[in-house]
Every structure is written in C-alpha cells, then in structure tokens.
Predict the structure.
Amino acid sequence: MKTDEAKRVLETALLCAREPMSLHGMKKLFADVDANGRQLGVGVGTDTIKLLLEELRHDWQDRGIEIVSLASGWRFQSRPEMKPYLDRITPEKPPKYSRATLETLAIIAYRQPVTRGDIEEIRGVAVNSQTIKMLEDRGWIDVVGHREVVGRPALLGTTKQFLDDLGLASLGQLPPLESIADAQDGRSLEALEAALQQNFDKADAPAPVEEEQVTSPVEVPIHDPQPAFGVDRVNNIDTNDESY
C-alpha cells in the first residue's frame, strides 16, 4: 500500500473510531489475512504508523480538531479554544464533583497506590464508601493490589480511563507538585486538589462509561512502602464526609 493511501486509511479510522486507537489496533488496518485469520505479508510497521501520525498531526495543526496521544491510544478531539462554541450545541453541563470526591481522587492520583486508610490519614476524616464506589463506577480508579500487612487492605490507583478523560497520556503529565514539598501551612491537600482541577478545567467531562466497558489500571508498584506523604492532617475539615 502506498504511503498516501495508508495515511488516508489511518485518518479515516481515527475520525470514525469511538474510542482511542492503539498502535496495535492501527496495524490491523493494514494486515491482510487468509481464511484462517493468519496474516499475509508484513503490512505496515509501527515506525511507519508513528510517522503517519506525526504527518496527520501536522496536517491538522491549523484546524479546530487535533490528533492527540492518550494513555490508551490516539484520537481526534476538538481543541480547547473550540469549547465555548461547542458548549452552545451541548446544553448538558459536565457533572460537578463534591469537594470530598475531588480530594479523594487527587490523593489517589498523586500518591498512588494508596489504601483507604492512607486517604483517611491525609484528609483527617473517614472516607465515604459511596465516594470510592462512584469513582470506581466512573472508571477512574481500580484496585491494583493489596498491601502486605494485617488485613491486606486494597491498594487503589487510577486507570487509563482516568487519563483518557483528562486528555493525558501518562500520570507524568499531571500538573507538578513542587510547591507541596515546601508547604508548611496546612494547605497541601488544597494544592493537590487544585492541581488536579487544572486538568478538569481543560478537559470536557465525557459521557458516562458504559457498564460493559473494561478499563485497565495504570501499572503501579504493588509492594509499596508506607507512603511518605509528609502532609500533616488537614485542619478545618468537617468530620462528616457527606457534608461537602
């Protein structure tokens, strides 16, 4: 297949795909198979596909849509500056999350893997089971292992779906937290939440995850030490988690 034709096929597939496409999935576009499903020929290699993706990125650089790399693959999406106009045809507002939910999600995102006990130690209040369940149902967190202590509490981490929904390819693209290391005024938790909120503000909240969709957790160490948070128990937080 000629390069121009392969590029057109790839562009069409990305525009029509309902979910991000992985490089492995893209290679299937160009793999001819026999009656038994065995691949015929070499198809189009990974390096060539990456080159085509960069060409497509350049082709669309001056348009309202861009091609981006996410945790689970590549996709086309609208540019941030188009959001005010698109909001005019989508009156539904993204769901608003409570302070307790954002705090819990921020702790998991920045300090993973963590247990519920770790989260409660940082927040200074009990974690509402419904908060954890909502984040799990949303596809943003999952159990990634168990801490090898008495009771073997579950270790929680974020998923690829979480990164995709924030428009990120990796956890390393979350806003940096250098300022937290020097925070001595009891506002470290607020900084965690604010850093996470930066990405919520940049990314549109997608439609709810379908029940049959399966998400894979981001790989994180399982045998982790006790987190060295260096964060004092936050003051001025109500003891009732549902108060937010």
Summary: The first helix runs from residue 3 to 16. DSSP finds ten helices and six strands in the chain. The mean pLDDT is 75. The radius of gyration is 21 Å.
